[in-house]
Amino acid sequence: MAIDLATDRRSLLGLSALALAAPTLARAQASSPSTIEVMNLWPGKPPGGEKVTVTEQVILRKPGGDPNDTAFLNVTKPWLMMRRPAKPNGAAILMIPGGGYIRVAVSKAGGPIDAWIADQGVTAFVMDYRLPADGWAAGPDVSLQDAQRAIRLIRANAGKWGLDPERIAVTGFSAGGHVAARLATRFGGETYAPVDAADRLPTRPAAAGLFYPVVTMTAPHAHGSSLKSLLGTSPTDAQRLAVSAEHDIPADAPPTFIAAAADDKVVAMENSLMMFQALRARKIASELHVFESGGHGFGLTGPAGVAMPWPALLEAFLKRHGLYA
């Protein structure tokens, strides 16, 4: 386990430019050809929607902005986007975007991070998911239902897609980090009744990557909108603990990579510290990077267009734990 408390850093979630990062980012900028396919997560209507009355919406995250920079609200038909590399190496990463459990900031056209993943020969999957305040019977577990279904769907089609079902990792960002953390720690429990043969498959990922994640629902570090969307305005302590990802870490949780910025004003960096400490207490292989500055949210480059090393750090971690060579 390693803690990297970096100082004097200017880029978002990052160190100053390192030689280690250059090859990775260069590959991302000149990615190999890949193909995109979008599929429904569920063969019919998702479970537990009898009292759901919302209408799904797709909006631009910035009015008048990039038409592919979208957000999904009141999700009723969650989907999975697959970006297949030209030469798959058998590994896969399920990506879970954020949005504060109010929306899902995701595009069916994909983006730079899943393109970078595919450029390494890793098949990238980007997930849209249902939201807990929309009346689903599963309540705070509805997004976890979709995450469990997504990893099962990937495993069920592993042979067809040229994947190793034992080499599927998950990454999550912000509130999506909370979904990913719960997927990585709640695989021992079933959140829905099986709907087809895929649902007989396990849901434990081979590794997890959590980026500026929502983790805890306990005071004082719970993320406000996520807490309200998950549990309403007056949750009990027991309800908070039940959906706090750092609570009840299993002894066989997967290796976990965590990254955050100390000046994050949206999701307190303490969320990442709490997750790392809980994993460390259970002797789970884990790595934490906390950087002096960077705020909330990042991509392959920071807000000033500075290339960042997190892809190389994550790549090294996943290779070290056998996801790919």
Automatic annotation (TrEMBL):
SUPFAM superfamilies named in the record: alpha/beta-Hydrolases
Domain of life of the organism in this record? Bacteria
Q: Which PROSITE patterns match?
A: TAT
Point out the signal peptide segment. 1-28
The alphabetical list of record keywords is:
Hydrolase, Signal
Domain (BD-FAE-like) ranges: 89-279
The family database entries (InterPro entries) matched by this protein are listed as:
AB_hydrolase_fold, BD-FAE-like_dom, GDXG_lipolytic_enzyme, TAT_signal
Q: Does the keyword Signal apply?
A: yes
Please name the Gene3D superfamilies in this protein's record. Answer: alpha/beta hydrolase
Q: What is this protein called?
A: Acetyl esterase/lipase
